[in-house]
Amino acid sequence: MGTTAVRTLESAAIDGQVQGGYGETNLFIKPGYSFKIIDSLITNFHLPKSTLFVLVSQLAGRQKMLDAYEHAKNKGYKFFQLRRCDLYKIKILFQEKIKSVLSLNSH
Known about the structure:
By secondary structure, the chain is of the alpha+beta class. The chain has a single domain, classed as QueA-like (3-Layer(aba) Sandwich), CATH 3.40.1780.10. It has four helices and five strands; from the N terminus they run αβββααβαβ. The strands form two sheets. The chain has a three-stranded antiparallel sheet. Strands 1-2 form a two-stranded antiparallel sheet. The model is unreliable at about 90-105 (pLDDT under 50).
């Protein structure tokens, strides 16, 4: 799921369950936010000064995301392409200690 779906589901989560309904959210996921239900995310690679990068960093870890950004720049990964996305999963990042980005299509 992407960043919009993350904000939507996190806003609708109560006691670990997503509650159905209709509404709006002004949820801004930033440092200090504790995720209620989400543990992974599929999204494009975002620039370090964007609010979307802040959201992804809160899920995966800021330093890991900064390291992944440098890795992507050094390897010539393409940014802002609709056919390309990256998977961020906490369990993989922390348990296996692999790169922060698992590229589904690195170029």
